[in-house]
Amino acid sequence: MTSPSRRERHKHERLDRIKAAAWALFSTQGYESTTIRQIAERADVAPATVILHAGDKAELLLLVFHDVIAKRIQPPETTSELPLPQTLLELLRPFIRFYGDYPELARAFFREFLYGKNRWQEQETRQAQAFLALLSQLIEARCRSGELKEGTDAELLAQTVFALYQTALQGWSCGALPLSEIESTLERQFIWLMEVHRA
């Protein structure tokens, strides 16, 4: 494997500075109040450089959230003895709490991810697929342990779990479901769903 060229390293360094500046501003003064010019000034680059490397403000929000979400896509460490519905909640809880800490940013992110068209859409889709694969692995493990019945389609069940989670987030985003009720709502849905597949 060849090491990246100096030009590539500088490009990545600039992008890292831009993302750090965007997150600092988004998370302190809000998405709507932040401008590309402010991000550029904080990152010590020209506004055109921000656009070149990251895109417009909406694209930059997706790029920043991609990194934040990537850090949270991890299998639960201490939940192997919990029933599957509670294990799934343990997996989802860091995301739910993060969105609760930054509700305005989260709502803007959902809007851009679900309805926007930009250069980072494919990257976000791949990340969602990675999360689905993690859900599927957890479900497959519970099938092997005998918690779920033989023949359970782990991939389809993972897609259903993810769809329930996305629906709950959309309900919160549009004001139909309080954030404080997301976990209890999902727990009831997961318990019901797993009963259908219980061994």
TrEMBL record:
<feature type="domain" description="HTH tetR-type">
    <location>
        <begin position="12"/>
        <end position="72"/>
    </location>
</feature>
<dbReference type="GO" id="GO:0000976">
    <property type="term" value="F:transcription cis-regulatory region binding"/>
</dbReference>
<dbReference type="GO" id="GO:0003700">
    <property type="term" value="F:DNA-binding transcription factor activity"/>
</dbReference>
<feature type="DNA-binding region" description="H-T-H motif">
    <location>
        <begin position="35"/>
        <end position="54"/>
    </location>
</feature>
<dbReference type="InterPro" id="IPR001647">
    <property type="entry name" value="HTH_TetR"/>
</dbReference>
<protein>
    <submittedName>
        <fullName>Transcriptional regulator, TetR family</fullName>
    </submittedName>
</protein>
<keyword id="KW-0238">DNA-binding</keyword>
<dbReference type="Pfam" id="PF00440">
    <property type="entry name" value="TetR_N"/>
</dbReference>
<dbReference type="InterPro" id="IPR050109">
    <property type="entry name" value="HTH-type_TetR-like_transc_reg"/>
</dbReference>
<dbReference type="InterPro" id="IPR036271">
    <property type="entry name" value="Tet_transcr_reg_TetR-rel_C_sf"/>
</dbReference>
<keyword id="KW-0805">Transcription regulation</keyword>
<keyword id="KW-0804">Transcription</keyword>
<dbReference type="InterPro" id="IPR009057">
    <property type="entry name" value="Homeodomain-like_sf"/>
</dbReference>
